[in-house]
Amino acid sequence: MGKCKFNEAWRDKQAFCHWLKPVDNNVFEAFCTVCKKKNSAWYVKGVKALESHAKSSKHINSIKREESNSFHRRSVSTC
Ligand SMILES: [Zn+2]
Hints:
79 residues; alpha+beta; 18% strand; binds zinc ion
């Protein structure tokens, strides 16, 4: 709790919290940590735009890359 405090509408969306971060000094922008890109359209278009970004192949591929990296790290350190 308390990690995702920007756009009220997004706060409940736990699915976005993993990759969505607020941008310092600009509440109208959000940053996708897996794609490493900022987008102000998300704020304007709202949750629908986030959902479509989450489903975009670019984002999914970025997540897969992240996961394979962290999975590798995790599988080494745990078990
Ligand atoms: Zn993304």
